Amino acid sequence: MSDVHSELLYTREHEWVQKLSDTLVRVGITDHAQDLLGDIVFVELPQQGVSLQASDPAGSMESVKTVSDIFSPVSGVVSAVNSTLEGAPEQINRSPYGEGWMFELTIAGPRSLEGLLSAEEYKALVDYD
Fold first, then answer.
1. What's the rounded Cα separation, in Å, for the pair 121 and 118?
2. pTM of the prediction?
3. Residue 102: pLDDT above 60?
4. CA-CA distances (angstroms) from residue 28 to 34, 100, 120?
5. In sequence order, which residues have a C-beta less than 8 Å from that of residue 78 and are 6 or more positions away?
6. b/e sequence 56-83, b meaning 16+ C-beta within 10 Å
7. Any alpha helices (H) in 49-104, and if so which ranges?
8. If we measure between CA atoms, which residue out of 1, 11, 25 comes closest to residue 122?
9. What is the mean pLDDT of the segment spanning 21-25?
10. For the segment 31-70, what is each residue's pLDDT rounded down to a tens digit?
11. Rounded alpha-carbon distances, angstroms, from residue 9 to 41, 61, 62
């Protein structure tokens, strides 16, 4: 069974959002998503300073099974990217909620997070018991 962290927020596209402050969030893909993708062999992340709207494509991942888009879960400006993933994309598989984080966004404030799913809602979406 995949891991769902109660302190995170989630999207229907299987991204997670960690609130670092009122105006900064960290983004990655869920354990469920990395499990479905299989071994991730390449990742393309957004450039620092790029402005993204919620649901905008922010990059892509290639696994042994498929190529998948990464979507921005909220609107904001990319303030950091996890550049270590370029040389070690397998970190996403090993630690999707830790070393496998993808990028950080500077957001307008907590209201920017409205519409994201709670852990319980995400579990229901992926049909966990």
1. 5
2. 0.94
3. yes
4. 10, 7, 18
5. 46, 47, 48, 49, 50, 51, 52, 58, 103, 104, 105
6. eebbebbbeeeebebbbbbebebbebbe
7. 84-87, 91-94
8. 11
9. 96
10. 999 999 999 999 999 999 999 999 999 999 999 989 999 9
11. 26, 21, 24
| Domain range enclosing 29 | 9-109
Residue 21 CA: distances (Å) to CA of 25, 28, 39, 105? 7, 17, 32, 11
Q: Residues for the chain: how many in total?
A: 129
Q: Tokens 């970190």 — which residue?
A: 91
Q: Would you say residue 119 lies in a domain?
A: no
Q: Residue 99 is part of a domain; what is its CATH number?
A: 2.40.50.100
Q: Which band of pLDDT confidence, cut at 50, 70 and 90, is reported for residue 129? A: very low
pLDDT above 80: residue 94:
yes
Number of domains in the chain: 1
Whole-number mean pLDDT of the chain?
Answer: 94
44, amino acid identity: E
Q: Are strands 24-29 and 15-21 parallel, antiparallel or unpaired?
A: antiparallel
